[in-house]
Specification:
Layout: H1 2-33, H2 37-62, H3 66-91, E1 94-97, H4 98-118, E2 123-124, H5 126-148, H6 152-155, H7 171-201, H8 206-231, H9 235-260, E3 263-264, H10 267-288, E4 295-298, H11 300-308
């Protein structure tokens, strides 16, 4: 028991250290490469912080624990919106770029509904997994084209006034990005190991472990990174991380595991867990939308509602 508790404490410390390095490096890269922090959050940061979900779900499915792997993905998507965005908004109101409310939100809603419809026959097949992965490639391609052709007006968000590394070599923020990602992965794995050990000692089912402890555990990098982004006044990276992570989980993680091995979908998954995941996506629009042109905001009251849900 002492070893389990120690691993959880070390994991939390690793997440705190890794998130600080990861967000700082991502903001520096956005400035140096001339792209908006939103693009970095939607791609580099979200993929990096979603690697725990990919690793855990793939390992679980290939190891003969599909319920745990699927529960991890569904629970993580729910936690990213209700826990990560909710807690972050309670700490400080979060600004939301218009692109998120429009293009990226629509893509996430389409991906979520598509995955739910695919699961209606009780299994995600290899072909459906390939289709999901293809959807991710299309989305990233559209996001990259938008970033390249957005013009100076949209790139103005990439200017970071207090950037401490504006003239230094590019390898420094890249190294910080790698170090931060490694610490996020190590920290999350330590917490997952400790949490699963406690859950198994209590005799909890694999689906419940995946939906709760594993889901929250693998969402801790998103939580740590998003909170750090809010503290560092990088709201675009923080919000992009939440939306991008859910896109990656739905298309890349579900796509990969079902392509490797057809993924069974239980009635509980289809009638309870997936609808809640869809609800999390639907709730994003009213809490993020604003009549003010170009930018909305998730305030503390809305953050409290998300956390309550």
């Amino acid at each position: 028991m002492v070893v389990i508790l120690l691993s959880i404490c070390l994991g939390i410390a690793g997440l705190a250290f890794g998130a600080d390095r990861f967000v700082g490096a991502a903001a520096h890269l956005a400035t140096r490469l001339g792209v908006s922090p939103l693009f970095v959050g939607l791609t580099i940061v979200s993929v990096g912080t979603s690697f725990p979900e990919l690793l855990v779900s793939t390992t679980a499915v290939l190891g003969g624990h599909p319920a745990m792997g699927l529960g991890n993905v569904l629970g993580s998507n729910i936690a990213n919106v209700f826990l990560v965005l909710g807690l972050s908004s309670l700490l400080q109101p979060v600004k939301v770029e218009s692109e998120v409310v429009g293009r990226d939100y629509s893509a996430l809603l389409l991906a979520t509904v598509t995955a739910w419809l695919m699961a209606s026959n009780g299994v995600l097949s290899r072909l459906e997994g390939i289709i999901l992965l293809a959807g991710l490639i299309v989305y990233y391609g559209a996001t990259l084209r938008s970033a390249r052709g957005s013009g100076d007006s949209k790139l103005s968000g990439a200017t970071i006034k207090d950037d401490p590394l504006p003239r230094k070599p590019l390898y420094r923020p890249l190294a910080q990005l790698v170090v931060g990602l490694v610490m996020l992965l190590v920290g999350s794995r330590l917490i997952i190991w400790g949490g699963v050990g406690l859950a198994q000692a209590m005799g909890v089912s694999e689906l419940v472990i995946g939906l709760t402890l594993l889901a929250v555990g693998t969402s801790l990098p998103e939580l740590a990174t998003t909170l750090t982004g809010i503290i560092k006044k990088q709201d675009a990276i923080a919000v992009g991380n939440v939306v991008g992570s859910n896109m990656f989980n739905t298309l890349a993680v579900l796509g990969t595991v079902s392509m490797l091995r057809p993924l069974p979908i239980t009635s509980e998954n289809f009638t309870r867990d997936m609808p809640v995941m869809l609800l999390a996506v639907l709730v994003l629009w009213p809490v993020s939308w604003s009549r003010r042109k170009g930018r909305g905001r998730v305030n503390r009251f809305e953050g409290g509602i998300l956390l309550l849900l």
